[in-house]
Amino acid sequence: MSVHNEVKKVTTNTLLRMKAAGEKIAMLTAYDFSFARVFDAAGIDVILVGDSASNVMAGHETTLPITLDQMIYHASSVIRGVNKSLVVVDLPFGTYQGNSKEALSSAIRVMKESGGHALKLEGGEEIVESVKRIISAGVPVMGHLGLTPQSIYKFGTYAVRAKEEAEAEKLKRDAILLQEAGCFAVVLEKIPAQLAKEVSESLTIPTIGIGAGPHCDGQVLVMHDMLGINNEFQPRFLRKYANLHEQITNAVQQYVKDVRRKDFPNEKEQY
Ligand code: KIV
Questions:
Q1: Which of 168, 228, 248, 265 could make an S-S bridge to 243, C-beta 3.0–4.6 Å?
Q2: Which annotated residues bind 3-methyl-2-oxobutanoate (predicted)?
Q3: pTM, entire model
């Protein structure tokens, strides 16, 4: 007989129930074991292994360069730190847009090699066949509409999306299509709060907003932004919960000083 500690894991059904009960969903990105372990223990519902790793971990200007192998590396590190949270992994640019067969083989690689629990794909109508094919293989999919960073060169700017009627109407149609295709949730990034409210009310699956106002069923932030590690990025939607850039700088400066003045290590800090 094996003895397991009963941990009530967050599943895609948990998120659906949370929406139905009017409970907000808290999601954060993470890219490695140590942060994932802290976030999981702190009670985060969903950890997103975002392709924003391309920006905040690798220093690229966009999310486009990150590869499937690199996403698998980040996701498998996160998974090893998680006990309870649902872990959603971004399929990176160029691994699902070609056709649904390619999308399915990318999805299978991530699920098999990382141990992630679900995938996120950017786009609506254009990728819905891929979404259906992945879901039909038993893999839960989260959608992502609005400012979809993998399309940055089409948009030309990171400004708010869907302010115009035609784009807003398409976004509403896409949200319904993704729900009908079987997605368990959809991220709404940088769109007007009123549009996010309408979309959230029109869906039975939860919406998770980033720069999409308070009416979404949950919120997501990039960990480096909300922890103030990255202090150059100051969009209006961002609330900083810490200033780690300053704290880390102070700690490192103090360490440098202590080493130079031969204060570290002291008598107690040696064998
Ligand atoms: O990659 C990412 O971090 C994301 C979030 C911004 C939603 O997709």
A1: 228
A2: 51-52, 90, 120
A3: 0.97
